[in-house]
Design brief:
Radius of gyration: 23 Å
CATH superfamily of the largest domain: Beta Polymerase, domain 2
Structural class: alpha+beta
Oligomer: single chain
Number of helices: 14
Strand order of the largest sheet: 3-4-2-1-5
CATH class of the largest domain: Alpha Beta
Order of helices and strands: HEEHEEHHEHHHHHHHHHH
Helix content: 55-70%
CATH topology of the largest domain: Beta Polymerase, domain 2
CATH architecture of the largest domain: 2-Layer Sandwich
């Protein structure tokens, strides 16, 4: 159970969606999805609401091979919206990065109605996507754990105050490391991805406590981190020895199909809007053609909104 109520989280997420629509036209936004502690039942009073926003390229972006969008928008309240092109997002699904795959499982999301049915095809098969390539998933978990291990005492500008407060280490990084260990062990043991995302009640209590209050001192933090990373490395290495680096062709077909259909829908709408704009420009020069266009719209059952 989360500290913040569902309606509070969703209200904050709607703010993210509205703000994203001020950065990217809404018809190019697939949806906004919660990321982070609320997805694991690990939020507390001071937890931010952060999100990932999947965006679509324009026809011009595709034709001229423009760099896909991948950036972080920081809101005035310091909450983050990670904006990422759908092509890059689907690459991260194949890389099996747990920080991205989790959006297929979150209860907190706002999906653009234009693409909701198509995106739901992916959500319906989220467990398959989560185990698209277990070898790669375990490798990625070990890599993320290594980042957290080496960040334990690193004085990032945004974390200096916290590190000084706790005598030289960041309890948030330690909590991340321990959470990854819990996830990895359960993933290897065959629990569902949805189950792996949320630690058991006792585990949640321990992780939330460490995140907020830390451990006894720096030496204990180092010991916990070293022991956890050693266990993660051992589990990952042993698992990869018996599991080949192979993706699931059925998931490849699913990902390709959903991406293709969503992008096609977006491009068709863009082309349709372009046609309408050209017609209206033409009508502005020759009013005698206006009635013909109106009859066409009525006949085809189309509408144009200014």
């Amino acid at each position: 159970m989360n500290f913040h109520k569902d309606n509070v989280i969703m209200r904050r997420l709607k703010e993210h969606y509205d703000e994203a629509c001020g950065l990217i036209p809404e018809d190019r936004i697939v949806g906004v999805f919660l990321q982070g502690s609320q997805n694991y039942g690990l939020d507390y009073e001071g937890s931010d609401v952060d999100s990932k926003c999947i965006v679509l390229p324009t026809l011009e972006d595709i034709c001229f091979a423009k760099k896909p969008i991948s950036t972080t928008h920081v809101r005035e309240n310091d909450e983050h919206i990670d904006l990422k092109d759908i092509r890059l997002m689907f690459q991260t699904f194949r890389k099996q990065n747990m920080n991205f795959v989790e959006i297929l499982f979150t209860e907190y999301k706002i999906i653009n109605p234009l693409y909701e049915d198509l995106w739901n095809e992916l959500i319906a098969q989220n467990e398959l996507v989560g185990r698209y390539n277990p070898h790669r998933a375990v490798t990625t978990m070990k890599g993320i754990a290594s980042e957290k291990f080496h960040a334990l005492e690193h004085r990032y500008p945004s974390r200096v105050e916290v590190i000084d407060k706790f005598g030289g280490y960041d309890p948030k990084q330690l909590h991340h490391l321990l959470r990854i260990e819990d996830f990895l062990e359960r993933y290897i043991n065959g629990e569902t991805y949805a189950e792996c995302l949320k630690p058991c009640a006792e585990g949640r209590f321990v992780l939330k406590y460490i995140k907020q209050f830390g451990v006894k001192n720096l030496e204990e933090a180092r010991r916990f981190a070293e022991e956890s990373f050693d266990r993660i490395s051992r589990m990952a290495n042993e698992y990869r020895e018996t599991h080949p680096d192979e993706g699931n062709p059925a998931v490849d077909e699913l990902l390709d199909g959903v991406q293709r259909k969503i992008m096609k829908e977006s491009i068709l709408m863009e082309l349709q809007n372009d046609v309408y704009e050209r017609i209206y420009k033409m009508l502005s020069y020759d009013k005698s053609l206006e009635y013909l266009f109106k009859e066409y719209v009525i006949r085809e059952g189309l509408e144009k909104h200014d």
